[in-house]
Amino acid sequence: MNGDDRPHYVVCGSDPLAYWVVRSLLATESPAGRVRVTLVVPERRRSDGPDGRDIEGVQVIRADRLDETAFRRAGLAGAAGLALLHQDDVGNMHAALCAQEVEPRLRLVVRMFNTSLANGVRQIFPDSAVLSDASMAAPAFVAAALGELAPTHFRHAGRTLYVARRADVRTEDVVCGLAVTTDPDLVRVLPADEAAADVVLAEATGQPPGTELAARRLVRARRRRQPVAVLLRAVRSFATRKIGVAVMLLLAVIALLGWLNGRAVDVSWTEALYLTLVTTLSGQDPDVGKPAAAQIMQVVLNLAGLALIPLITAVVVDGIVNARLALHAGRIQPDRSGHVVVVGLGNIGTRVMAQLHDFGVEVVAIDKVPDARGGALAHRLGVPLVVGDAGLEETLRAASVDTCQALVVVSTDDGTNLRAALNGRALSAELRVVLRLFDGDFAERIQRAFGIGISRSVSYLAAPSFAAALLDRAVIATIPVGRHALLVTEVPVVAGSALDGRPLAAVARPGEVRLLAHTRNGQKTDWTADPRMVISAGDRLTVVARRAGLSALLRETAPPPEPAPAGAPVPRQPDE
After folding, report:
1. RCK C-terminal domain: from which residue to which, for each copy (predicted)?
2. d(CA 29, CA 39)
3. CB distance 476 to 490 below 8 Å
């Protein structure tokens, strides 16, 4: 545009994720200098948080509908890439189809949560990356909950993988060897002899019980069976407070009148109790020969009995209803200790819950609605779900927050998150709190002001991966090993490339690249593929590699260079 040959990227979004993606793109250097970014936002702001429209040096296009007209206004034709970052899976897919009409050959990055739609997008748009900010940020929350300094685990193709010492995991859970670190001065990564590697990549299965990693120092969760405490909690939830107060007052009046009646007729306390109950519940034959005081007390007791019977009926009916609601909402739970409480079963909370369960950690979930996005998964995994406002102390106590090892607060309401974190810290001063806040700057200020251990911004954590995917540098995870950095990535094989038609064994290079999994086009990922299997165009290779090894692999999976036109001068080779 206007002679500007810098790479042009179009970003569509109106939340903090779009803001941080734009910031990451502007910090990227290209051979022609910094990239050029166009941001497409709605006419009006949809939240008070940053959405990128105020960043200097960004062209802003306002459009409430992402269609061909909006994309042409944004200069999508000829652009290097498009990022669709709205929290609407179907809307993003529709926008992708519209964008294809404007620019068929386009690098596309789509934000999605639904895996079925994600697979559909990959089939329709070969040059696309479908990412979930929830999947990217969840490992950071899990690592913080378990007391780790950095997220050394990630989820890919239905498996949760993590980095550990070989001695801390079962042999059958090891996926591959990563490094030999027995000599700190000479760390060898991706050695040819995998059996020599003491640092490995393993799969977290959560089974069998008792195989938690010593390196992670997981606290074994246990249920404290206290029948009396559970009974008292059930009694408290049995009836409403108003009915309970009315019954207690009426019983006090009956007890007082029974005592006076016993004094008037001069009988023992057992006989007085009998006469009082009979008079109250069934009435007594009138006796005009009684003293006036006794007759008055008898009439009052009969009237009290008329009020007591409906109240007893109301207590029974109300108690049955409340007890069923309490059981359904999970408010009647046995006391636990050493577990992790996850507040909010949205995109992030569901991922965090699933990964903690994979690691064998007992989880208790809290959400304000019983049909939350992750409610079905919680039921399938056997995770107790407490329904209620996490900002209330009563709800936190129902989840035994005072004895848990960590409280992970990841709902979409910053106010509820902050109240839950502060109330949880009030219940236990030593509680490890992992707090989600949408604004990264606000998260840091809250951490300093209230002494909350860890605060995270999902957008800040996920933005670098979205920006890398837009630049066609998709990285699933980065594994630090000493001074080395190993990259886990999925590389597609293009027709006519150097690896097209070669066996899988040709992918591995000791010290540089190691193959983790192979995905045939349209099929499930194979983690134990035969090295003799022939690679075909469209296959995807999941590898762990050093940066130099990954660069070499990308060249081998890229399309062959186009032949020079006839008569074109042959470039002169430099002298050896």
Report:
1. 476-559
2. 18
3. yes
